[in-house]
Structures are given as C-alpha cells and as structure tokens.
Design goal:
0% strand
C-alpha cells in the first residue's frame, strides 16, 4: 500500500471535459473550513499540515503552468528550489524563498520538536501551543498571499 503512494504521480489538470475544477473547488472549500475549525479548537498541527498541502498545491499548479513540466506531488523544499530556478518575479521569489522559508522552519519545529528539549531552554506545553497557533495563523495568511501573487502573474501573462 505505501509503495503505491510513493510512486511518481502526475497532478490532475482542469479542462472543460473533466470534473477536476469542481473537485478541487470542493476540496479547497472544505480544507479552508477545516483549517479555521482546527485553529479555533486548538488543533494547530492539523491546521499547519493542511496549510502546507494547500501551499504546495498552489505552487505545483503555478510551476506546472510556468514551465510546462509536471510539478505534481513535490515537497515544499523541492518547490522552493524550482521557484529559485524558474521564477523571475521578485515579489513571488521573496514570498516563497524568504517568508515561506521562515514559515517552513517554524512548521518543522512545530511538527517535529513538540517533545524535544533544547539544552538550557525550558518551553512549556502551553508556550509551544501558543507558538503553534502563531505558525498556523501565519500559514493561513501565506496561502492567501501566494495564491493572490500567482494569480496576478498568470493574469498578467495571459
């Protein structure tokens, strides 16, 4: 089962004769609602995970459009490297290579260091949860900004 999930896969593309656009719209709508609920109810790691999925999906879509190559199912780091190689727009580069990279590092701490203790530092569970709340809140704003910028670039080049 896991082997099937790790094979190279191609991102579904919307067209007039398929239901991809509608499915993507419904998934996005449900995901944004779930993120809001997760943040409201204190499930910050869940919100952060869903935010990363939305961010990578937007970058995969944009890079596939920009380059004509399949960028489906890539990691955030791979997509950042692709932006570094292929993108000329200074605003998107700054957003993805600086602000998103800061968020990525904070996301890594949130996801992978909840129970790790750094020598000489004491961070309570409550403090860690407050940090994760901030990471989730910033992630939601980053999704919106990345989406706006990539849409703007697509429209300006259409």
């Amino acid at each position: 089962m896991l082997a099937k999930m790790t094979k190279d896969r191609e991102r579904a593309v919307s067209s007039n004769d398929n239901a991809v656009s509608q499915e993507r719209y419904e998934l996005y709508k449900a995901t944004f609602e779930w993120i809001a609920k997760s943040i409201r109810e204190g499930f910050y790691l869940e919100a952060i995970s869903l935010e990363e999925s939305l961010i990578t999906d937007r970058l995969e879509s944009y890079l596939t459009w920009r380059t004509g190559m399949n960028f489906g199912f890539k990691t955030l780091g791979e997509l950042q490297q692709a932006i570094r190689r292929h993108e000329r727009d200074a605003d998107l580069r700054l957003l993805v290579l600086d602000e998103l990279d800061q968020w990525r590092r904070a996301r890594n701490k949130a996801a992978h260091e909840m129970v790790k203790i750094e020598a000489g530092k004491q961070v309570s569970w409550q403090e860690r949860m407050m940090i994760n709340q901030a990471v989730a809140t910033v992630g939601l704003e980053l999704i919106r900004r990345i989406d706006r910028q990539t849409r703007r670039l697509r429209l300006s080049e259409s």
